[in-house]
Q: What sequence folds into this?
């Protein structure tokens, strides 16, 4: 696939995505329509991907839960779950297309199966396999504004699938990749910040951030974009821009100059920062196996069982136990997976050979991220000195080329974020 070209003029293609807050009610849908209309008036061929109204997916999920559990001998109907929860985006796609038509524009809604957005069979958490862009592209070439419901696709067996929470971001990037064009993500914030402004008032909006940095930040707790959408954008080299949907065209129907944050190749960023951001995630749990048998294969047995149940593990620490011939094994996982992980470990206690299981959900993961770490020494020293100065103790560490994460008591999470933001001078970005 060719790389999208932002330099084309005249009939440049563009994918726009509006999140649940931007689709929250009819007035916000009208505002989104005015933004779309301004891009179309500027000569863009536009496809729009929309989320369900804020809170609607939760309501639909609650309805499926209220339908009850499967009876004896009846399989869990994940495919019917997808039918229900995919309807939220169908409503907003139709409403936006209708609003655009009422403004005199040529618009049409496209369901995921009509494009089609082809996925695997993993209902509720499907992954996109292919998006043929020919039919949608031809409609756009003919002057139609295509409105696409995010979060949904279709399996090769013809069943509607959903992509998991935040999947509309991934839908938008996949459509942009199929159309070989950039993707603008409109949301309730005006870009990607050095940290959460609700925690640190001196947080600064970043003009540009690399795919790799954004991928790390998304996976570590920054909620601006879904992780899989950034992975796909990086793989297909789709330029992403995060923008606020709370803007209005002027009296001439012209949008303000685009600001927001551009997510792009590292080579497009002239001045690379050592650290670009500080993230925090409270969705963490620490699980410790005390007195685990010191067999060489014991850790492999533990993590094989977790992998078999699709439990993702992040930080891992092994230390010597008080008992001879035993170790203590600690790992972290998402809080949502903690109960399942603990249940797996308890069920295999005899085979694994451990003395005690402990689960702690009162923890948080704080991370610093930046491509400049590759070429600058002292990043870790700055982090641990800043935490030590505030009396924050860490329980586990994980690193990559461009990030350092520590697990700490949840009570100190916001203090740690502010201390690290100051230590790396991010208020001056």
A:
């Amino acid at each position: 696939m060719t790389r999208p070209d932002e330099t084309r003029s005249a009939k440049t293609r563009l994918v726009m995505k509006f999140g649940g807050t931007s689709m929250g009610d009819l007035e916000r849908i009208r505002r989104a329509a005015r933004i779309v209309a301004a891009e179309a008036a500027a000569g863009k061929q536009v496809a729009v991907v929309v989320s369900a109204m804020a809170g609607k997916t939760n309501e639909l999920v609650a309805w499926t839960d209220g339908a009850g559990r499967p009876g004896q001998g009846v399989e869990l109907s994940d495919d019917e779950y997808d039918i229900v929860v995919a309807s939220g985006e169908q409503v907003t796609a139709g409403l936006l297309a209708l609003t655009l038509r009422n403004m005199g524009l040529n618009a049409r809604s496209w369901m995921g199966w009509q494009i089609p957005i082809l996925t695997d069979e993993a209902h509720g958490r499907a992954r996109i396999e292919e998006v043929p862009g020919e039919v949608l592209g031809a409609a756009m070439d003919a002057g139609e504004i295509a409105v696409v419901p995010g979060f949904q696709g279709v399996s090769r067996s013809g069943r509607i699938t959903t992509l998991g929470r935040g999947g509309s971001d991934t839908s938008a990037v996949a459509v942009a990749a199929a159309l070989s064009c950039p993707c603008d993500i409109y949301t309730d914030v005006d870009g990607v910040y050095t940290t959460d402004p609700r925690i640190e008032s001196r947080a600064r909006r970043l003009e540009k951030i690399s795919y790799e940095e954004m991928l790390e930040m998304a996976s570590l707790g920054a909620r601006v974009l879904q992780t899989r959408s950034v992975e796909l954008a990086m793989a297909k080299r789709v330029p992403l821009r995060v923008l606020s949907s709370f803007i209005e065209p002027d009296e001439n129907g012209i949008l303000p100059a685009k600001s927001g944050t551009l997510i792009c190749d590292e080579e497009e960023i002239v001045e690379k920062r050592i650290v670009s951001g500080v993230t925090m995630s409270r969705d963490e749990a620490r699980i410790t196996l005390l007195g685990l048998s010191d067999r060489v294969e014991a850790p492999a047995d533990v993590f094989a069982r977790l992998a078999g149940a699709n439990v993702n593990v992040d930080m891992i620490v092994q230390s010597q136990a008080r008992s001879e011939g035993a170790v203590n094994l600690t790992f972290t996982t998402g809080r949502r997976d903690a109960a399942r992980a603990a249940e797996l470990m308890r069920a295999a206690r005899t085979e694994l050979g451990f003395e005690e299981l402990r689960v702690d959900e009162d923890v948080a993961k704080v991370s610093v991220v930046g491509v400049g770490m590759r070429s600058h020494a002292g990043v870790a020293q700055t982090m641990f000195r800043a935490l030590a100065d505030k009396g924050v103790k860490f329980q586990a560490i994980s690193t990559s080329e461009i990030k350092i994460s520590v697990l700490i008591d949840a009570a100190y999470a916001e203090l740690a974020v502010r201390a690290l933001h100051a230590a790396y001078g991010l208020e001056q970005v």
Q: What stands out?
A: The CA atoms of residues 222 and 279 lie 6 Å apart. Residues 1-10 have pLDDT under 50 and may be disordered. The first strand starts at residue 13 and ends at 18.
